């Protein structure tokens, strides 16, 4: 979901994932989020171990724990969002990022538009962008609409199709996309998105689906995995996408 753009825009479009892409996993947000989601599962009456298992299963299967919860447990997704993302102490964990801000300022807007593409609800997305100090540099946000019981999320193809519809993009090859989830990147590539980059802070410990994991431990080493460019700092987008920056 997002505010649809009616007018056709011939420029290419940059889609930025938000969580663990626009800020480093070292901020500890995935850890704090994992704890809250775990507490939610336990709050549904599941024993500790069962809660961990199911949390990880839904994350792996659907790309998002909440997707499985809505599908199999008929939970109220907005209640989930309030208790999980909504209660994160983001103001303590994140701060304005001048390097990211400069990166976004240096993108040549005569060539591309810059949008966010997130599996979070819009409240969390906007909050993160505001704290990082880049909300004014993002032209649109396509988010997961938890208020719709049939909502889609990355890496479901329908989510990407909807994003293109919302931004009024007809040619997938005009899409630039960076995300810390390789599954999300691969799904976009399958749909023909032209310039996909995997943000991979290799070796950093974070939490995925409630479980601690060293980032990149399941991804082959090297600058290029199955033809997908990988970067460890968002600023490296200048190198992999030189054509969209002001010179
Ligand atoms: Mg992410």
Task: Tell me what you see in this structure.
The protein has ten helices and nine strands. The chain has two domains: 12-24 and 93-244, HAD superfamily/HAD-like (Rossmann fold), CATH 3.40.50.1000; 29-90, DNA polymerase, domain 1, CATH 1.10.150.450. Strands 3-2-1-4-5-9-8 form a seven-stranded mixed sheet, sandwiched between helices. With 247 residues, it is an alpha/beta fold. Helix content is 38%, strand content 15%. It is globular and about 55 Å long. The chain has helices at 29-43, 48-62, 65-73, 77-83, 90-93, 98-105, 122-132, 157-167, 182-190, 237-240, and strands spanning 12-16, 112-117, 140-142, 175-179, 195-199, 205-208, 211-214, 224-225, 228-231. Bound molecules: magnesium ion (MG). Magnesium ion is lined by residues 17, 19-21, 179-181.
Furnish the topology, listing elements before pairings.
Elements: E1 12-16, H1 29-43, H2 48-62, H3 65-73, H4 77-83, H5 90-93, H6 98-105, E2 112-117, H7 122-132, E3 140-142, H8 157-167, E4 175-179, H9 182-190, E5 195-199, E6 205-208, E7 211-214, E8 224-225, E9 228-231, H10 237-240
Parallel strand pairs: 1-2, 1-4, 2-3, 4-5, 5-9
Antiparallel strand pairs: 6-7, 8-9
Helix pairs in contact: 1-2, 2-3
The chain binds magnesium ion (MG).
Residues 17, 19-21, 179-181 line the site of magnesium ion (MG).
Which keywords apply here?
10 helices; 2 domains; 247 residues; DNA polymerase, domain 1; single chain; binds magnesium ion; Rossmann fold; globular
Question: What is the structure about, briefly put?
Answer:
One of its GO terms (molecular function) is nucleotidase activity. By secondary structure, this protein is α/β, with parallel strands linked by helices.
């Amino acid at each position: 979901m997002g505010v649809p753009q009616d007018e056709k825009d011939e420029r290419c479009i940059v889609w930025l994932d938000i969580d663990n892409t626009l800020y480093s996993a070292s901020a500890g947000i995935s850890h704090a989020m994992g704890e809250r989601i775990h507490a939610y599962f336990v709050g549904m009456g599941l024993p500790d171990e069962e809660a961990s298992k199911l949390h990880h299963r839904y994350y792996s299967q659907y790309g998002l724990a909440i997707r499985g919860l809505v599908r199999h447990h008929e939970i109220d997704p907005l209640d989930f969002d309030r208790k999980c993302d909504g209660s994160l102490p983001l103001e303590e964990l994140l701060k304005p990022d001048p390097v990211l801000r400069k990166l976004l300022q240096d993108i040549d807007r005569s060539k591309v538009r810059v949008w966010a593409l997130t599996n979070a609800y819009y409240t969390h997305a906007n909050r993160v962008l505001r704290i990082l100090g880049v909300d004014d540099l993002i032209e649109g946000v396509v988010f997961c609409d938890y208020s719709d019981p049939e909502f889609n999320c990355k890496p479901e193809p329908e989510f990407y199709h909807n994003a293109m519809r919302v931004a009024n993009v007809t040619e997938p090859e005009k899409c630039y996309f960076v995300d810390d989830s390789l599954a999300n990147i691969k799904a976009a590539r399958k749909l023909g998105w032209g310039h996909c980059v995997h943000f991979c802070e290799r070796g950093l410990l974070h939490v995925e689906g409630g479980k601690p994991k060293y980032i990149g431990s399941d991804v082959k080493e090297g600058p290029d995995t199955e033809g997908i460019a990988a970067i460890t700092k968002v600023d490296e987008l200048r190198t992999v996408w030189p054509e969209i920056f002001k010179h």
